[in-house]
Amino acid sequence: MKNKYNLLLTYLRELESVAVAYSGGVDSTFLLAAATEALGANALGIIGRSPTYPKREQDDAVALAEKMGARIHFIDTDEIHDEAFYTNPPTRCFACKSTLFTGVWTAATELGCKYVLEGSNADDLGDFRPGMDAAHKLNVKAPLVELAFTKAEIRTLSKEMGLPTWNKPAFACLSSRIPYGQQITTLKLGKIERAENALRDLGFVGIRVRDYNDLCRVEVPPSDIPKMVEPPMRKNVVQQLKNAGYQFVCLDLEGYRTGSMNETLSSETKINARKQG
Q1: What is the Cα gyration radius of the chain?
Q2: SS in 3 state form for 40-86?
Q3: With the C-alpha atoms ordered 152, 95, 134, 126, is the resulting torsion angle positive or negative?
Q4: 98 falls in which pLDDT band (50, 70, 90)?
Q5: Which domains does the chain show, CATH number per domain?
Q6: What integer best gives the mean pLDDT of the chain?
Q7: pTM to 2 decimal places
Q8: Which backbone phi and psi does 115 adopt, to 5 degrees?
Q9: pLDDT tens digit sequence for 41-95
Q10: In terms of DSSP bridges, do strands 208-212 and 215-219 run parallel, antiparallel, or are they unpaired?
């Protein structure tokens, strides 16, 4: 695996200067750390500020970049005003990532970076990810895909490198909590953010609060379901999520799984969404 990492460093050095679309997640942190090791000040992490990106995640990403000695730069994205995004079609992620990568490219060019990189890995190829199509269309490189890095390899190498994200749960933007076809608003995003922060403060990790207007469907890892339904905790969870803005609170007994909202999409819909992108 070390040889594979050395191949990544060689790949990055050949690019000479790069901007990494950086969110503080497992993959983008690993990629930015590698780029910083390979290129020093010629590597830059660009964070897109948006209502879909929780302040808590942003603050953690900034603190981690500082710890790694990585340069960072902020851009503000306005996908929330794009009809192709806020109407929440199956192609939502394509619209969102198009806005993000266009902004990253603009900043990268102004700051003298030759290439823009993003952190998709080889495992992502088997999932429904229109955002990867946006990256390809906008000439954004995905080194971890090109060099066939799996999520497990990234986590193992991250641990060896001392990156605290090595065991961080997967995270997706807050818009992924809203069912396709239901409008995305800053009000809904803020409510979801407050609710998920409350659950994290209660000690739950790897969670999702799926928004259905007055009702939320909470996903926690199956191993945490017993903890959540214990009478004192259950009462606390309900109160906290009502304080966040929900009237009804439901627990999904199937537990957390990545992209559960995609379960409502047929294979044909997914194919058509990728064609439209």
Answers
A1: 19
A2: HHHEEEEEEECCCCCHHHHHHHHHHHHHHCCEEEEEECCHHHCHHHH
A3: positive
A4: very high
A5: 2-167 (3.40.50.620), 174-257 (3.30.70)
A6: 93
A7: 0.90
A8: -135, 155
A9: 999 999 999 999 999 999 999 999 999 999 999 999 999 999 999 999 999 999 9
A10: antiparallel
Side chain identity at 183, as an amino acid letter?
Q
94 residue type, one letter: F
Could you tell me the pLDDT band of residue 272, with boundaries at 50, 70 and 90?
Answer: low
Show the tokens assigned to 250: 């439901």
Conformation bin of residue 258: beta by default, left when phi > 0, alpha when psi is -120 to 50: beta
Closest by CA position to 21, among listed 167, 146, 170, 139? 139
Reported confidence tier of residue 264, pLDDT bands at 50, 70, 90: low
The token pair at 2 is: 């070390």
According to DSSP H, which parts of the chain are helical?
A: 2-15, 26-39, 55-68, 83-86, 92-110, 130-137, 143-146, 151-160, 186-201, 225-229, 231-244, 267-276
CA 253/CA 64 separation, integer angstroms: 34
Residue-level length of the chain:
277
